[in-house]
Amino acid sequence: xxxxxxxxxxxxxxxxxxxxxxxxxxxxxxxxxxxxxxxxxxxxxxxxxxxxxxxxxxxxxxxxxxxxxxxxxxxxxxxxxxxxxxxxxxxxxxxxxxxxxxxxxxxxxxxxxxxxxxxxxxxxxxxxxxxxxxxxxxxxxxxxxxxxxxxxxxxxxxxxxxxxxxxxxxxxxxxxxxxxxxxxxxxxxxxxxxxxxxxxxxxxxxxxxxxxxxxxxxxxxxxxxxxxxxxxxxxxxxxxxxxxxxxxxxxxxxxxxxxxxxxxxxxxxxxxxxxxxxxxxxxxxxxxxxxxxxxxxxxxxxxxxxxxxxxxxxxxxxxxxxxxxxxxxxxxxxxxxxxxxxxxxxxxxxxxxxxxxxxxxxxxxxxxxxxxxxxxxxxxxxxxxxxxxxxxxxxxxxxxxxxxxxxxxxxxxxxxxxxxxxxxxxxxxxxxxxxxxxxxxxxxxxxxxxxxxxxxxxxxxxxxxxxxxxxxxxxxxxxxxxxxxx
Length: 486
Hints:
This is Acyl-CoA synthetase. By secondary structure, this protein is an alpha/beta fold.
């Protein structure tokens, strides 16, 4: 089965319903089905061995058309981030071994043809070629029942990019979980706040089209635009991340009488922010879920469960098994911290160029524990753990204390080398005024060895394309700042 197979049904049953609304156009399901078929046909008539298409596009219908067309035709879509430098784009393009690349016209000057030995088309050239096709239905690729359809990039803790790959069945299973756990269906109008380069936002858009709902896309997130969309459209679901939610809360963007479902992903959503949302906006229900690029959905916390388990990342999804293990692989007791392992039908298919397939039980080296009721809690990343004089410190624990303080907008804690202690925790806080008061509160709430030994203030955090704080980049920035002060 393909993630696009429902489009034909939607085109027949709801031909005039809006499928996609972006800042340039509105597309009905009849038009959407035809666009995806045309993109798939063009790819099938393009003879390449790897069957991988890369594209450098901003948020919009064309991004989704190429992605869905690739899935329909049995090709692999490889999205590239316009915020990457030219060097970063070339590096990841080479890693992907793509057969061709489509680039938005305004980005062409940043991407010279001679930089890579790959055919390059501007978006306008690609659209022109599609218009010349004699339309015929896309032939489903029969060579493989579940081909790889999506390649993304994750840097992990090292900062070196790795390409992960996914098969269609993993997303089909995720669609089932979305319907069962969250109740999202064909009647929903879904607002996508962030970049489609983020798996979270891309999945939100593609799953909505699979169900037959309506997707509204912002080319770029701004709180004012998002608030206007929530006020003027019949939005029932919004996909967001904690930083965006915080911005919307500051301008009362969630006011209204109609029920609204907030779908959030990101471990840095503070308890106080969740409390503000559920207390001030009773018509809002939220689901905060834990997952990764490799594991997909793992667990979710509803706004109802939040009242009883405020610091949990929720219960595992119905098809997911979670174990917390010690270093000898034995299973931990309830409330005992260990490494989190996941067994899931939604997991990825591995990393490109790694011969061994993923094991049945996977870990991304997150540490945490399960309580007596089966709710999962996060301590932090094992490979991000700071070893201070032989004592283990999870940066996330310090960050939770920092982010609960009203003076702190955002914070991050990184471990930096120290000749005596081995590593020391260093706190970086965004635009804070009362640093002395913040430091005092941390001293009162944490054990002395967990209190950051260095404190830095930054105007704006360096972010990933998904709107999350870029840990590797922030650690490098902290190293540079402290070296300048020596």
